[in-house]
Amino acid sequence: MHLPAILPWGEAEGFSKQMLLVILSVVIIATFFVLAARKQQLVPGKLQFAGEAAYGFVRNGIAKDIIGGKDFMKYVPLLFSLFFFILVNNIYGAIPLIQLPSFSHVGGAYVLAGIVYVTWIAIGIKKNGLRYFKLATVPSGVPVYILPIVIPIEIISNFLVRPVTHSLRLFATMLAGHLIVMIAGSGIEYLVMQESVLLKGTSVLVLVGAIAMYMLEALIMALQAYVFTLLTAIYIEGALHADSH
Amino acid sequence: MKQLIVSAATEANPLVPNVWEMLVVIISFAVLMGIVIKLVVPMFEKTFAERAEAIEGGIAKAEQAQAEASAALEEYKQQLTDARTEANRIREEARAEGAQILADLKEKAAAESARITAQAHAQIESERQAAVVSLRSEVGTLATTLASRIVGESLSDDARAARVVDRFLADLENQNAGAAK
């Protein structure tokens, strides 16, 4: 399952396919949106319309709806970049011959979740000062005698578990999808190699199942990009309005 | 042997990240964020703002045109009303003036006719007076001439003749007065 390194840069590490695909995703996203946005026509053409729809989906559907207020525009670039960066890197897994979602390696997921983690804590401190940690861990309206239980739970869930689940959710779904596709592929290969015609025939069943799984995986790839971005927006919103939660 | 196990575990554990991959993702994402912040978001926002402005500007322009049109209509209506009032006023004035002129003319005509009538009266009176005077002297002359012819006596004495005539006329008048009684 471990991919061959493109350039061996050491014993276990090298310039992997993932790295190439990650860099390629930046080129794809930047090229598409710069081309789409460049003309700036009041009545958009097809490309511009597609770009505006995609941009508006993140801007209005995620940033404006979740964060809202006057200053949601500040977070649109982060949310926009996250959504399309993850989306393109996930969709790789559904493209024949590439068939490799970049986040099936955990490093990228850690990086993105880490960026988000630092960002929302920084926003919380900037907005509320150090009081933010009290606001984030001591829920209002809870009886005093429950607080000794609630506060540790809040600390663990907000500051320890949150970045872990945020990164592993993306990584695990991509890895699982990738594994299923690979297992199905090698399973078909194995069955076709069998001498018995009946065993050869069962490979068709595996193929049908694999196609269904492929469709499901394609859905999950898009969905996980949305979920990751949506959670980022929710965390930022929570940090911005910690005093009203 | 121990080293092998550790390395195998590291290989097999999917939760251990590859540092180089993390680095690539960090740099790639930073580059993407930079492009998005510098180019993509400003360009889209500019287009959105321009479009909103164009739509709102169009609406504002239409509203302005509407307002101008209704103002013009109002003005025309006002002008029409003014013109009607003016026409009425002029008509009224003309009527009053005409009546005034008519009255003046009537008065003037009446005065003229009165003057002419008075003049005629005066003329008739003076002519009558003249006729009476001339008749009186003529009757006197005729009567004395006739009487001298009848009496055969010259009544050349004017004083006497005048007395006779006066007496005759007085008698005549008395007769007339008696007849009238």
Could you please describe the fold and organization of this structure?
The complex is a heterodimer of chains A (245) and B (181). By secondary structure, chain A is mostly helical. Helix content of chain A is 74%, strand content 2%. Chain A is built from 7 helices and 2 strands; from the N terminus they run E-E-H-H-H-H-H-H-H. Chain A has helices spanning 17-38, 46-67, 76-91, 106-128, 131-137, 147-193, 197-240; strands at residues 7-8, 14-15. A two-stranded antiparallel ribbon of chain A has the order 1-2. Chain A is globular and about 70 Å long. Chain B has 181 residues and is an all-alpha fold. In chain B, 92% of the residues lie in helices and 0% in strands. Chain B is rod-shaped and about 195 Å long. The N and C termini of chain B lie far apart (192 Å). The chains are: A mainly alpha (245), B mainly alpha (181).
Features:
heterodimer, A: 245 residues, mainly alpha, 2 strands, 74% helix, 2% strand, globular, B: 181 residues, 3 helices, 92% helix, rod-shaped
Give a quick summary of the entry.
The complex is a heterodimer of chains A (245) and B (181). By secondary structure, chain A is mostly helical.
User: What is the N-to-C succession of helices and strands of chain B?
Assistant: HHH
* Mean pLDDT figure of chain A: 87
Class from secondary-structure proportions of chain A: mainly alpha
Quaternary state of this entry equals heterodimer
Net shape of chain A: globular
Strand order of the largest sheet of chain A: 1-2
The chain-level mean pLDDT of chain B equals 84
Report the sheet with the most strands of chain B, covering strand number, pairing sense and barrel closure.
Answer: none
Could you give a short account of the major beta sheet of chain A?
A: 2 strands, antiparallel
The N- to C-terminal Cα distance of chain B equals 192 Å
